[in-house]
Amino acid sequence: MRVLWLVAMLKNSPQFRHAVLLNTLRSCQLFSDLPSSDLDTIASFVRVQKLERDQYLFREGSKVEGFYVVQTGAINVHRVSSQGKEQVIHVFRDGEPFAEAAMAGADGYPADARAIEESRVVMIPKQQFLELLRNRPALSLRILASMSMHLRVLVGRLDDLTLKDVETRLANWILKRCPRPLTKAAFNLELSHTKRVLAAEIGTVSETLSRTLARWREQKLVVAKGKSLLVQNPLELDTLMRRNLGES
To answer: In the chain, how many domains are there?
Structure first.
């Protein structure tokens, strides 16, 4: 009991929380190899925010308070059409930054952000960070690199939107993670997050994802087992996707 009490005390100590915060910042590509002094400066003004599942972090058009780094969990950044349809832009996970570009304008956040599982994010306040950029020009280049990476993600999303349906999008998502060249040999794909997160990432809901996987199980294509997908025949799955796309 005394050992457990000591562990609890350590976890609640300011030193432990500071160490966890520094580790989160180092895990982010933006801050990965910054000098310790700069990391300490950033850690001194950031805020950690806990989000429950389905809780919104910000809404499209709301005032930009800063940008974020996911500490744990998953954040679904999306837009909602005039017809009320949600289009996922990207699901951000541990160590990934998002909303950096919003700090450069005065129009508010360009999309909605919602936790799709219990999450913790580190918020880097706009004013303090912009002040730091004035004294650390190299950080500006890191921000540009991060925005460039997000642009590539958006281009990839546009490619995905050309795919016809959920089945095709899911097949494409799985095949991107299968070893190349594709073969008939079974491959076990471990999921880093829940199937609910996967559904959001391919722009659908859990029920539709489950129906698709159930159909594939019957067709001996993919078997869902806990947090993994057994791809029984990657080559056949690729054939199915190409057939759906009208390719030979």
So the answer is: 2
